[in-house]
Amino acid sequence: MSKPKRMHPAFILFHVIRSLRDTILPFIAAIIAIPKEHFFFVIIGLIALALVFTIFSTLSWWRFTYEVTNDELRIESGIFIRKKRYISKGRIQSIDISANVLHRVFKLAKVQIETAGSGAEGTLTAIKLSEAEDLRTELKGYQTNDVDLEKTEETMKTPTVPFFQISNKRLFLAGSTSGSIGVLAGLFAFAASEMEQFIPDDFYDNTVEWVVGLSFALLIIVIIVILLFLWLVGIAGTMIKFWNFRIERHEKELFITRGLLEKKQTTIPLNRIQAIGIEESIIRQPLGYAKVFAEVAAGSVEEGDEFSSVLFPMLKESEVEEFLKTILPTHAHVDGAWHAIPKRGLSYYLLRTLLPVCLISVPVYIFFPGFMWAVAIVLLLAFMLGYLSFRDTGFQLEKKRMLLQYRRISKTTMIIFHRRIQSIEKKQHALHRKQGLATLCVSILGTNSVGAHYFLKELAEADADKLANWYSHRKRVEDMDYSKNEKEK
C-alpha cells in the first residue's frame, strides 16, 4: 500500500447503526415518559437524528485514510480536527480480525491493532477481507492457518501448529451449564415489568387475573416452561459466541477463532499473558469440567469483550493438564499439594456468607413470615458456600511461580509467575493478629487500568510471611521446599 486508502463505503452504514444503538436507551426512556399523543414527535426526532448521523458518518468515512509504509502504519482521521497516528510495526502486539453478519454480507472485516502498553491503537472498521489478511501479513510478517474466516471444518482438520478445538457436543454442554439463566431471568422480569405501559389495561388486567386464578400445579408448570425457555436462550447465546472455537499455539502468539454470527480472530501475544486461570463453576465442578482463561496486560484483547481472555470454554479436569502442555507448557504441571487455611479461619468464611442472609431475613420475617422457609433454604446454601470457600482456599509455592486457589461462587485456580507479580500486600486487623492470621493480596497487571487482585483470606500468618518473603527475596528462598503442608501450630 503505497498510497493512502479509504475504508469500504459500507463503513457509513456501520457507523450509523452503531450511533443509533448508542442512543437507543434515551429514546426508549422518551417513549416511556412521553404521552402517547406526542409519540409522533419521537419518531420525527429519531428520523432527524438518523439523518444527522448519516451526514457525519459520510464525512468521517471520507476523511479517514490509512497507509502502510516500510516502517509504520499511518492513520489520518477527523472531520474538523485532523488526527494523524503513526504506529510503528515494531510496537504492534496483536492484530485481530472479526466479521459480524453485516460484514459478511459485504465480504468485509474489521481489523483492530493493539500496541504494547496502550491497548487498542488503531481500528479499521470495514475493509475487504482479502485486504485485512494482506494488512496483517504486512504488519506482522505472518499468516495464520485460519486466514480465511469462511474456512470449512474439513480444511481445519489438517493443522500445522498445536491446536485445540471444541466439539459441538461439548459446546452444547458448555451452554447448558453456563449459569446465564439467572441473568436472563432478571432481564426477562425487567422487560415484563416495563411492557405493562404498552399493553392495553384490559388485556393486562385479564392476564393478571388469569395467572392468579391458576392452580398451584399449573403455575409451577408455567414457571418451568419460562425457565426452560431462558435455559435454551442461554445455550443458544453460548453456542453463537463460541461456535467453532479454536485456539492455536504459534511461536510468539496464541490465535483464537470463534463465532457464528460474528466470526472473530483474536491474537494474544505470549509476552502479555500475566496469569492463567482455571475456573470451575458451582454447576460444572460436580460434572468434572472447567474453563481456562488468561489475564492479559494493557487492556482487554478486544476492548469490552469479556470472552477475549477465554482460552478454552470447557474442558474436562483430566484434559486441563494436556491443554496447558500443548498451548502453554510453562504453565503446566498443576499437580502439587496445597497449603490449606487453618481451621481457626473457618468462622470468618461462614460469617461473610451468613451475615447478609441473616440481615435480609429480618424484614422477611416481619412483612412476609410465610416465606421464612425460603430464608431457611438460602441460609443452608450460604453455609455450604462459606464452608466450600474455606475448604477450597490455599496456595502452592514453587521456585519461579505461585498457584493460588480460592472460591467466590466458582472455584478458581490462578497460575502466576514471580516476574508477573506487581505487588504482594499483607493485611491484618486486631482479631487476625490475636489469632495469628493474615489476608494476602497479590496484584498483577490486568485487563483494565487498576489491574487484577487476588485475595487469600485468613492465611496462617507464617504462610503469609513466607509468600511475602518469596516475592521480596526469591533468590534466598528458591531452594526451600513448599511441596508439603505444614502442620498448624
Automatic annotation (TrEMBL):
The chain crosses the membrane at residues 12-34, 40-64, 171-192, 212-240, 349-366, 372-390. The keyword Transmembrane helix applies. Keywords: Membrane, Transmembrane, Transmembrane helix. The keyword Secreted does not apply. It holds the Pfam family bPH_2. Residues 61-138, 244-327, 391-471 form the YdbS-like PH domain. This is Putative membrane protein. It comes from Virgibacillus chiguensis.
